[in-house]
Amino acid sequence: MTSIAPHQKAKGLKPGQTKPAKQLCSECGLCDTHYIHYVKDACAFLNQQIAELEKKAHDRSRNLDKEDEWYFGVHQDMMAARKKKPIPGAQWTGIVSTIACKMLEKGIIEGVVCVQNTKEDRFQPMPVIATTPEEVLAAKVNKPTLSPNLSVLEQIERSQMKRLLVIGVGCQIQALRAVEQKLGLEKLYVLGTPCVDNVTRAGLQKFLDNTSRSPDTVVHYEFMQDFRIHFKHEDGSIEKVPFFGLKTNVLKDVFAPSCMSCFDYVNSLADLVVGYMGAPFGWQWLVVRNNTGQVMLDLIADELDTQPVFSKGNRKEAVQQSIPAYDKGVTLPMWAARLMGVVIDRIGPKGLEYARFSIDSHYTRNYLYTKRNYPHKLASHVPEYAQKIINQYQLPGS
Fold first, then answer.
1. Which residues contact 110 (CB under 8 A, 6 or more apart)?
2. Which one of 55, 80, 170, 284 has the lowest number of neighbouring Cβ atoms within 10 Å?
3. DSSP code, position 394
4. pTM higher than 0.90 for the full model?
5. CA triplet 277, 315, 304: central angle to 5 degrees?
6. More confident residue, 113 or 222
7. Eight-state DSSP code of residue 138
């Protein structure tokens, strides 16, 4: 008689039902499936366990005697890269899509968990299991909204796929790693992207309406290394809005509570991470965490231009000044914001120091948010590496 796994007796929550993490739910999709059976252990906001899962994924947790590992996690290589021949319409040059397509074409994997958009809305995420390069390419460009990527876990189980690539962000990947051994896979590959300040679809619209000159034509956007938000529009034009000109008093509460209490900006549990914040402008920042990640990167090595990462400047004064400014919802006049952006771009942190600036700014902000709104969770929720980063700064009320 075939035994039934415990989770197969469970049922995912129906739309509208309260999730176990309540307001802190990041809508990762786990609770939409019968894998909800494991949510108390798996959810990043119910059980912070990055150090333990690092050991399983990378054979070790980060070395807290090394400052670089406080910030960037377990890694064996780091570089800046870009495709020699970019994919048309990709948000960057298409490194993530190229790896996924190559793995399918070579038969290394049978499917890719990625996020397309619905026909009705270019920003409404629609997780899929892509089995062709065409389906992967239909998922190019980030969807800057909370996305239930793990809602396809039951489909994976029914498909009987044994070799899978999952593309996702930190909270999704922590839950995935926690249930990895329950999926019945022979091999799981994880390609991660850094993630910060995500929003609901309604929150995204509020952000666009209050920030862009033409919110209805925005194709994608990023908070870039030049301290400006770059909005790409349907006509190909790029609109640049300085960070310091954001209507902080209006937008301060637009980000999801889960993102405001997250301390895994760099996607610590992925095999390979592809982002931008530690690279020069126009390049991607690649972090190889383990041998599986190296195998993935090697597949497209001949299609990439690469250069070493570098670090320049000092972030700490800028971070310290940003803490009370954000806390008080300070918004500068646009002329002053543009001027400040130009000055900081010239003399401010670059490369990995910019990455540290971004991490410091968000971790100090998120620590204050968690302390004020979920004080009972603070001690267990803030990882040791994040606490070391936060301890470098003077916070309001401390």
1. 131, 159, 161, 162, 163, 164
2. 55
3. P
4. yes
5. 25
6. 113
7. T
